[in-house]
Amino acid sequence: MRERLAYSPPLTYRHEGQSQRMSRRRQIYEGKAKILYEGPEPGTLIQYFKDDATAFNAEKRGTINGKGVLNNRISEHIFTALQTIGIPTHFIRRINMREQLIRQVEIIPIEVVIRNVAAGSISKRLGIEEGTQLPRTIIEYYYKDDALGDPMVADEHIACFGWASQDEMNDIADMAIRVNDFMCGMFAAIGIRLVDFKLEFGRLWENDYARVILADEISPDGCRLWDMKTNEKLDKDRFRQSLGGEAEAYQEVARRLGLLPEEGEETPVLDLESHRKKRGK
Ligand code: 5GP
């Protein structure tokens, strides 16, 4: 059991065009790819997905057209599926093309990275060739702090600095493994290798008792997804490595998951944000 802490969202966030236009609701927090607004009921928030993309601790910035719409849909799909296998999540329901209703949680300041195949920072740090299948799944923890560049930490640091209790870390590791097992299968079924991904967790307070639930999002922004046949990257590495075709890659993931209309079918809902952009407004 943990003592209740006041919720204190970080204060220093840029205002960007998309956020100013979208909502008259009170903004609680603006991150690199999402904005959180006050929800309609106490204990709820609205999570808005932007097209903005950043990499290398925001040193590289850009936009991926339609990313927000796709990530909203992909994350809804995965969180809903995870709930059916008993993983508690903050997701309540999707509201529209770019927004979803979520439970307000106290975010645990740890990024949980699950790796099945070597790529990215583990390849660089340990000199393991990218694409090497790891003999077992690895879970790593990073302290969420932009100013420090999200440094990797050990359980000892998490316990020492009180970022999460041992019971919470046990729950997090158990859930991370179950999420990984489920997602490996889900992506394998559509010809995609789940190389690695990042999860975030939060505390949901019920009276004086806090339960850890899955929070944030699961989308190609925080996963490495490779086509099983060609090893083509279908995730944010296309943006990080300036490979081009990032919007198409995100669309391909959504399409294989069955979330996009098949060729010939009309998209039934107009996304005002993309529509305005196309018209240059
Ligand atoms: P790496 O440590 O190799 O850079 O990242 C491992 C995995 O976690 C990748 O799938 C990457 O997308 C994800 N990841 C790590 N840190 C972040 C982050 O700050 N933001 C997002 N969106 N994904 C991250």
SSE diagram, text form:
Elements: H1 17-22, E1 27-30, E2 34-38, E3 44-49, E4 52-55, E5 60-63, H2 67-84, E6 91-94, E7 99-103, E8 106-107, E9 110-117, H3 120-126, E10 133-143, E11 152-153, H4 155-160, H5 166-188, E12 192-206, E13 209-215, E14 223-227, H6 237-240, H7 246-256, H8 272-278
Antiparallel strand pairs: 1-2, 2-3, 3-7, 4-5, 6-7, 8-12, 9-10, 9-12, 10-11, 12-13, 12-14
Helix pairs in contact: 2-7
Bound molecules: guanosine-5'-monophosphate.
Can you offer a commentary on this structure?
The chain has 281 residues and is of the alpha+beta class. The protein contains eight helices and 14 strands. It has helices at residues 17-22, 67-84, 120-126, 155-160, 166-188, 237-240, 246-256, 272-278; strands at residues 27-30, 34-38, 44-49, 52-55, 60-63, 91-94, 99-103, 106-107, 110-117, 133-143, 152-153, 192-206, 209-215, 223-227. Strands 8, 9, 10, 11, 12, 13 and 14 form a seven-stranded antiparallel β-sheet that branches. A five-stranded antiparallel β-sheet has the order 1-2-3-7-6. Strand 2 and strand 3 (44-49) form a beta hairpin. Helix 2 (67-84) runs parallel beside helix 7 (246-256). The longest helix is centred in the middle third of the chain and has 23 residues, at 166-188. The radius of gyration is 19 Å and the shape is globular. Mean pLDDT is 90; it is low at 3-21. The chain binds guanosine-5'-monophosphate. Guanosine-5'-monophosphate (5GP) binds at residues 111, 113, 120-122, 150, 196-198, 221-224, 236.
